[in-house]
UniProtKB/TrEMBL annotation:
Annotated InterPro entries: GPCR_Rhodpsn_7TM (IPR017452), Olfact_rcpt (IPR000725), OR51/52/56-like (IPR050402)
GO MF annotation terms: olfactory receptor activity
Annotated protein name in UniProt: G-protein coupled receptors family 1 profile domain-containing protein
Topology of this chain in the membrane: Multi-pass membrane protein
Localization annotation: Membrane
Claim: Zinc-finger is one of the keywords in the record: no
Main localization (coarse): membrane
SUPFAM superfamilies xref list: Family A G protein-coupled receptor-like
Length: 282
């Protein structure tokens, strides 16, 4: 699954770089998603494979906290990029005449930087709070495939109330605010679509949005389910917690490129052109 995710996301990045017709805001945001998915999977899977293959189970605290920061930071950044993609669709559908002038390359870069800062500022305190407030641990065995925040906090001997409240508060704040903004924009998008002239145009426009909606569901559903089981699923077996936590780092990097390649005409046609060129005899 890791190799498939790497190949798919590198393919998306290469196609957008080589094909000038794809140098548009939507595809730049897709490149940002591809980079984030590569960071998320690469920050966890290689270490996980060394555990399976070589029994290299040890990880020091600083490395653990660094991995934790990258995982939770880039999950938050990915949520911000989905919100930016949603804004791109909203402008393209509801105000198409202003799309090019409003979403210039500089604006796209600023939106990407804002999503990155959004992740760094929210998640930066998490490893610091563990390092400064939780010096002693009951055990050194993390019941997870990687250094997941709540899995590390539950090992501490001292009071973890502040860490728990901040971690859960940030998680639900990011999820709820981003999902509310995405939902509100899609309500306005669907209202605009219903006002289009013909059913054919409506279906074509909805088809453009369908890939984005599928990617949002693939990203948010595993995170929401995993968060809810952590908070309320005290009787859920540990292996279910671990499986759900693995899902939201493995499934989106694999499915995002597939969803956008299948539903986005320009990417699909460019990919088919590359495959046909490679299959032709020299």
């Amino acid at each position: 699954m890791y190799l498939v995710a790497v190949v798919e996301n590198v393919t998306i990045l290469t196609m957008v770089k080589l094909e000038r017709s794809l140098h548009q805001p939507m595809y730049f945001f897709l490149c940002m998603l591809a980079v984030i998915d590569l960071v998320l999977s690469t920050s966890t899977i290689p270490k996980l494979l060394t555990v399976f293959w070589f029994g290299a189970c040890h990880v020091d605290l600083d490395t653990c906290l660094t991995q934790m920061f990258f995982i939770h930071c880039f999950v938050t950044v990915e949520s911000g990029i989905f919100l930016a993609l949603d804004f791109d669709h909203y402008v393209a559908i509801c105000d198409p005449l202003c799309h090019t002038s409003m979403l210039t390359h500089a604006v796209v870069g600023r939106l990407g930087l804002a999503a990155l800062l959004h992740g760094v500022l929210y998640i930066g305190p998490l490893p610091l709070m563990i390092h400064l407030r939780l010096p002693l641990y009951r055990t050194q065995i993390i019941a997870h495939s990687y250094c997941e925040y709540m899995a590390v906090v539950t090992l501490a001997c001292s009071d973890t109330t502040v860490n728990n409240l901040y971690g859960m508060g940030i998680g639900f704040l990011v999820l709820i605010l981003d999902l509310l903004a995405i939902t509100a924009s899609y309500v306005m998008i669907f209202r605009a679509v219903m006002g289009l002239a013909t059913p054919e145009v409506r279906l074509q426009t909805l088809g453009t949005c369908s890939s984005h909606i599928c990617a949002i569901l693939v990203f948010y559903i595993p995170i929401v389910v995993s968060s809810l089981t952590h908070c309320f699923g005290h009787h859920v077996p540990p292996h279910i917690h671990i499986l759900l936590a693995n899902f939201y780092l493995l499934i989106p990097p694999i499915l995002n490129p597939i969803v956008y390649a299948v539903h986005t005409k320009q990417i699909r046609e460019r990919l088919l052109h590359i495959l046909r060129s490679g299959a032709q005899p020299k």
